[in-house]
Each structure stands twice: as structure tokens, then as C-alpha cells.
Amino acid sequence: MNTIKVVDLSIGYPGGKPLVENIGFTLEPGLHVLVGANGSGKSTLLKTMAGILKPLKGKVEINGVNIHRVPRRDAARLVGYVWQNPFHGFIEASVEREIAFISKTTGARQHGEIVYRLVDPELMDRSPFSLSGGEARRVAIASVLSIDQPVWFLDEPFSDLDYKGYRVLADLVEYGVKKGKIIVVTTHIVSLLDSLKPKGFLLIDRGRRRLLMGEWSELTDEVLLEAGVIPRGVSCGSTL
């Protein structure tokens, strides 16, 4: 069974105050939602758990491996990390080459089903930089997750998606859950995730530099408001 174990972790940037400190938890397969206000440290925590950023202290183990003590090539085979800005990681001239890149660099086999679920075939010859925001997000997700890692970290993945794009990504998340993956999704708009019936939540309370956890049903509007997060039912300009 896939597991993530976080031990006595403090995150932030050298020389500054920790965004969250002394946290510890274990995640098992299923969908977990990392919630917090804009600027609360969601992306920083996710990047630290993926091994992209170093912790101020503590450690993160994924399937028994300290993610900060392995080469990036090996970390990429364990964890698929999708950036909040879909254009951030594009480096190739075509969508097809972009999607193939991670397989070539890690030596892992590409799983065509994931690509098929996310990317329309007519986009393959296009430059990834010419895509709309929603198209780019789906290509970015496919380009990272195409090697079917056991752990998926998705930073604000439902941004810029219309209803069709939302359903495509929601179906992919459900596929991953059924395959026993650990999926962590960040959001500051909780209502976007309700229909996916997440297993649990992690809520960054930046004012107290702490992390709250619980089952999804325990994430009430009162808890959200206390942490400065938009409660359910409040209009936020979503295209869904």
C-alpha cells in the first residue's frame, strides 16, 4: 500500500519565519485536499512533500523513501507534481514531445490511457505555448502523470477549466483513487472538490502556523472562515 509519512516538518524559505511548523501526519491511498487561503503556504508544502523544496527541518518519506535524499529522476518516478501555472514546465516545441519528455528522462513507460483521457489528438502537433489555459492545464497534467506514479500532487488543478475540462480531470482523479494512488489536490475554493468525495482534508491555518486535518465531512464553513478560506456557497467567479 502506498504511504506518505511526514515527520516533524517545518516549511518555508531560509531566513524567514516558517509558514507551518512541527507538523506530522501519514497519508494513505485516496483523495486528500490541501486547503488554505491564497498565500497560506499550500504550494510550498506540496513542493516540499514532492522533494522540490527542502524543508527547514523534518522529513518526508514516500513508500519508505526519504524524498529529499534521492536523485530528482527517482523522485519523479515516485511523485507526479503538477505546477499551479500550467505553462511553467513546458520546454518542448510540440504537445506530443512535451508529453513524451518525462518518460525519456526517467526511463519509465508511458501509459497511453492517461494521455488519452486528458489530451485531444488534434492538439499533439500544436506548440504547448499556443494553447488556451484549460488546454494547457490538461496537457501539463498529462505530461507529468503519463508515467503513472503512485503519488500525484496537483496544485490548483481545477483552475481555468470549463465544465468539460472539470469532468475530464474529475474522472482522472477517480481513476487514480481506484488504482490505489495517493492524490493530494490544493485549492482555496472547497466547493470545487465536494463532488469528488475526498477522503480527508489538510487545512493550513496560517495565522497560527499550524495544519489541521480531518475527514472531509468535518470541514465546515466555520472551520474554513476561521482559517480565512472562502466557505461553500460564496460566489468566486468559477466558470463551472
UniProtKB/TrEMBL annotation:
Residues 4-232 form the ABC transporter domain. Keywords: ATP-binding, Cell membrane, Membrane, Nucleotide-binding, Translocase, Transport. SUPFAM superfamilies: P-loop containing nucleoside triphosphate hydrolases (SSF52540). The keyword Iron-sulfur does not apply. SMART domains: AAA. The keyword Iron-sulfur does not apply. One of its GO terms (cellular component) is ATP-binding cassette (ABC) transporter complex. One of its GO terms (molecular function) is ATP binding. It is found in: Cell membrane. Its main location: membrane. This is ABC transporter related protein. It comes from Desulfurococcus mucosus (strain ATCC 35584 / DSM 2162 / JCM 9187 / O7/1).
